[in-house]
Amino acid sequence: MPRPLIIDTDPGVDDAVALVLALRSTEADVRAVVASYGNVDLDHTLGNAGRLLALTGRTDVPLGIGADRPLVHRLDRRATLVHGEDGLGGRAAGLADPVAPRPGSGIALMAQVLEETTLPVTIASIGPLTDTALLLATYPHLADRIERIVVMGGSIGGGNVTGAAEFNIHADPEAAQRVLTQDRVPVALVPLETTLACSAGPDWLRALADADPVCAELAAMIEPVRAVYRSRYGHDAVALHDAVALLECVEPNSLVARPIPLAVDTGFGPARGATVPQLTAPDAADLPAVGVMAAPDVRTVLDAVLDRLRKA
Ligand code: RIB
Ligand code: CA
């Protein structure tokens, strides 16, 4: 039985790879895609999500309009240096016209999916956690309809947007705190160190480009990101962060979990947005733990991602 899935996303090149992986996985029943601000502004992420639904022929999947800013503190920091001004490595304008979003709010669409489902729904949160926090806060009675929330974000080591914080958490630390410290819905966190460890190298990227027209388009989107990674990290490999999280969604236990209670730094110091393990906190035993995910075998993860992308 395909697993019901809602994807909250800020496409974003790695989001694009993740969306194609989910939309092409027979084990996933994608019930809704909701686009929010994040890598680029909402007007771009919404159009990009609509283009990716059209690109994969999945115009059956409803598209929702997510948040256009963080919950509390406005932050206009985007990731255009990595994802391009259009969010898709400069390729958006050449794609098919986007699927139009459903009127109303994306949170209401998510709630409608949860109200109508007969099976528990997995929520993949691969952008800022603003929408996910709003869903939990607005519809607490629907929490038991959610199987788990799989978050791409956070880091137990250093960050990528600052020395301490990963981009998705840093974008809205208050929202992240709301999601990562609640005890109603299980949370699996796929952190930066795991997604960086699963970076795709030249052979993987070439195999993607050679697979089919949709994969070739993804490979073309990735190229400018690859150049940024080469200059930033000094080697020819690209972390497709969100695709690793979506692999865990469609193929549970691709990654292994370590239960760790986390706190999010919502202060305004240099560590704002850091996800801080609370294993040594006096009340650690009473804190809800997040499943912090690691890759048992990087090659297996990368092969599984590629296999799913190539399933047309
Ligand atoms: O830090 C990586 C995360 O931030 C990914 O989800 C990427 O798409 C950006 O949103
Ligand atoms: Ca993302």
Report on the architecture of this protein.
The protein is an alpha/beta fold and about 300 residues long. It has a single domain, classed as Ribonucleoside hydrolase-like (Inosine-uridine Nucleoside N-ribohydrolase, Chain A, Alpha-Beta Complex), CATH 3.90.245. The chain is built from twelve helices and nine strands. The protein has a nine-stranded mixed beta sheet, sandwiched between helices. The two termini are about 20 Å apart. The model has no long low-confidence stretch (mean pLDDT about 95). It binds alpha-D-ribofuranose and calcium ion. Calcium ion binds near residues 12, 38, 126, 127 and 242.
Salient structural properties:
312 residues, alpha/beta, Inosine-uridine Nucleoside N-ribohydrolase, Chain A, 9-stranded mixed beta sheet, 12 helices, 38% helix, binds alpha-D-ribofuranose, binds calcium ion
Structural topology:
Layout: E1 3-9, H1 13-23, E2 28-35, H2 42-55, E3 63-65, H3 80-83, H4 106-116, E4 121-125, H5 130-138, E5 146-152, H6 167-171, H7 173-180, E6 187-190, H8 192-197, H9 202-209, H10 213-233, H11 241-250, E7 256-264, E8 275-277, E9 289-294, H12 298-309
Helix pairs in contact: 1-2, 1-10, 1-11, 1-12, 4-5, 5-7, 9-10
Bound molecules: alpha-D-ribofuranose and calcium ion.
Residues 9-10, 12, 15, 38-39, 126-127, 242 line the site of calcium ion (CA).
